[in-house]
Amino acid sequence: KKKILNELLLLEFSSRDSSIHVMSHYKDGSPLFLAVDEVPHLPGILLLFKIGEVLLLDIRDPYHANCVYRANLCVPISSETKDVSNECCRTLEVDDEGIFSVAACALLELSDSGMDISKEDDPMSIDGESSKFISNSSFICTWDWDPEKSANSKMIFCTDAGELYMLSVSCDVQGYFKVAITSCLYDGLHCKKLLWVKGGFIASFVEMGDGLILKLDEGRLFYQSSIQNICPILDVSVVDYHNEEQYQIFAACGVGSEGSLRIIRSGINIEKLLRTAPIYEGVTGIWSLRMKKGDAFHAFLVISFVEETRVLSVGVSFCDVTDSVGFFPDSCTVACGLVEDRVLVQICRHEVRICVPTVTAHSEGIPSSYPICKSWKPEDLTINLGAVGNNLIVVATSNPCILFILGTRLLSFCNYEIFEIQKIKLQAEVSCISIPQEDCSAQETLQSTITFAGGSPQAFLPNGIEICKTFVIGTHKPSVELLSLVPREGFKVLAVGKISLTNAMGTAISWCIPQDVRIVILDQFYIVSGLRNGMLLWFQWPAISSSSSSDYVSPNWTATDLPSMVLPLVTENMQQYVTVNVNEASEGSSPVQLQLVAARRIGVTPVFLAPLSESLYADIIALCDRPWLLQTARQSQRIAYTSISFQSASHVTPICSADCPKGILFVAENCLHL
């Protein structure tokens, strides 16, 4: 008390009489000592932080503390933007004997708190001239030491101006100490706390704004990610999002230039088990495959790159079994899947390949040194898209726009071949294909296994449409179209959902081409489509009047009424050929017009749909710049959109193994994440 200047006191505790007494004290000619910290690995050496200065104190003789080094922090700061990336390391000006008093200078530059605050001094004003000038005096407000042991003790510190520097303390063989401070490594916000952890990562926490994760690499700091901080919340408003009984909070957060309007929703947290090194560059697709339809766990993970494909076995360790499976390794895979038990299909740009793996790849494989493989090629055409389902393969070309429908048949033991069931010439290019993966062995038709809420099945789907002989496509018209096998006529377009969207101003929304499409059952039968503009559409079968038959009635036309193109078709058993003419635009056919029941923007990048299992009832991950989980809200029978807490991913697939029964594998930042 009653001291004009700060003093650094060295206290001693006596365990003999449990008393504390002053051993010595250190005085300086300037006021405002801010903090003191000991230097790791150098016993008896302290750092004393002041306004504009850092002092190195030697207290190895506790009765005679003295300053052995003084570093100046008063560095002129230009009002222009600084390029700190190319500045080299330097040692600040040091005076071992003289005393620099900068406290008075700093106090003179402070505004008088008793004066009226003008616009220039308003901390909430971002247009004032005061933001162009920064005080030359600075002090260290927070710091942390390098957790790794080294010859020099290193510290990362932040000044009141939000600049990050590195300080190192060293001692030469003659016992002389030296303090070196680098140039500014990162210019950001004023930090409340710094945390330096192993691996060169530094966490910067801001009191009223978002923090940062930085990476120290070769003497430079690089931004990695942000640490969200919603404090302080100045105002909130709770809103029912899209009238879906999913409430979210609009919050006014932060102070000054860090103020922001944020949306807070309920979400699902995931447990991150594994992240590989960033070696998966150029991934074009990933798929998880079972060896048989009834298997509880996945057997293979297929990763497609720009010019190659790799197949990994799923287990404790992911081993490369590409050669044992039979997939063509030197080509990009468009699609793949399980067409029959123990029979896998790979769709490449120029061929469709059917493979029977060996026992080396899987215990259920054939006892042979090499897998059995057969291929089918589309006559000098390039395959753009494809899909594999139960006993069904569909591929599409763009020029000309043709849809090939393929099947497989057994010639002898483990000897399969691919044959062409039908090809359909389309008016528009196909943008996506999806075949339902529901196992048809336990059901005859789709409606026989579904109990819809709120009415008869006739109001949702006609009888006679078998899910195992049905698939859905998206086109560049744009539209979504459902095709199914009609007895004695082949695959036909039975339903069409036209896509024509406008905004609130009545302007047409562009880029509404489907990126992905799925048949799903949540509270009822839907066709869900993710668009390339970040929107998600829900179509349903239109309600049918009671006077109409619920069965699908084949249109009344004959072969003489069709266009001149003759194409092969098959009967219900998909083995016998019949020659008729087929064109989706034939005048005799009138597809059902699907009803668009919901359209919602969930992001700004193309939306991919990834069901969490092969069932039509499975929850779906909608993958875009903001991943979502789509599921049925059991109480309200509405579709619930729930945010998922992982970063924007380009590809995702469910993975089910004994060690990870509910896994999700996705690609982000050239890494595989489990």
TrEMBL record:
It holds the Pfam family Beta-prop_RSE1_2nd. InterPro entries: Beta-prop_RSE1/DDB1/CPSF1_2nd, RSE1/DDB1/CFT1, WD40/YVTN_repeat-like_dom_sf. Residues 281-673 form the RSE1/DDB1/CPSF1 second beta-propeller domain. PANTHER family: DNA REPAIR/RNA PROCESSING CPSF FAMILY. This is RSE1/DDB1/CPSF1 second beta-propeller domain-containing protein. It comes from Nymphaea colorata (pocket water lily). The lineage of its organism: Eukaryota, Viridiplantae, Streptophyta, Embryophyta, Tracheophyta.
